[in-house]
Amino acid sequence: MQRIGFKHIFILANKKIMSKNKIIEKYKPVKHNLLPILHELQDSNPQNYITEDDVIMVSKHLNISFAEVYGLIGYYSMLSNKPRGKYIIRICNSPVCNMIGSENIAELLCSELNIGIGETTTDKLFTLEYSECLGHCDIAPVMIINKEIFGNLNKQKIEEIIENLRNK
């Protein structure tokens, strides 16, 4: 097994910073670019979250306060400042989905993954979250995994979806 020295770690860290800078710098430094920049930074992170260093770089680029960037991350449910799994499962928590059984879907997922809402599996594969209306009431109950919508959910369908993701 090859050992990685300090120089190699420094080079890898530097490449990561450079790639984040590329993401940020492709956007004009205007405030309305805040959300697209944050989404792209989060999507580029294998742990699906925005780091404190990301917040600092974005606030400098857009010439806005750290608190303003950090506040948006805390407010907007699709963004996170905490490491998450490879697959982020968001269960629709709208009144329509609740009437059709999203609470049962949440219980099934918690049982299948052996985690609670807001938690990540020990293998860092799945994170389970609630989300407000996902806009697919016609196929409720609904969940979204990363950017893919799954509807008309039941126990069998959930088990199949999770099994397929585990085997990818």
Describe this structure in words.
This protein is an alpha+beta fold and 168 residues long. It has two domains: 6-75, no CATH class; 87-166, Glutaredoxin, CATH 3.40.30.10. 49% of the residues lie in helices and 11% in strands. A four-stranded mixed beta sheet has the order 2-1-3-4, covered by helices on one side. Strand 3 and strand 4 (148-150) form a beta hairpin. Helix 1 (6-25) crosses helix 3 (52-62), helix 2 (34-44) runs antiparallel to helix 3 (52-62) and helix 3 packs across helix 4. The longest helix has 20 residues, at 6-25. The radius of gyration is 18 Å and the shape is elongated.
Low confidence ranges: 4-15
Named at the architecture level, the CATH assignment of the largest domain is 3-Layer(aba) Sandwich
Q: What number of domains? A: 2
Question: What would the principal axes of the Cα set say about the shape?
Answer: elongated
CATH homologous superfamily label of the largest domain: Glutaredoxin
- CATH fold annotation of the largest domain: Glutaredoxin
Task: Write the SSE topology.
Blueprint: H1 6-25, H2 34-44, H3 52-62, H4 66-75, E1 87-92, H5 95-100, H6 102-113, E2 126-131, E3 143-145, E4 148-150, H7 155-166
Parallel strand pairs: 1-2
Antiparallel strand pairs: 1-3, 3-4
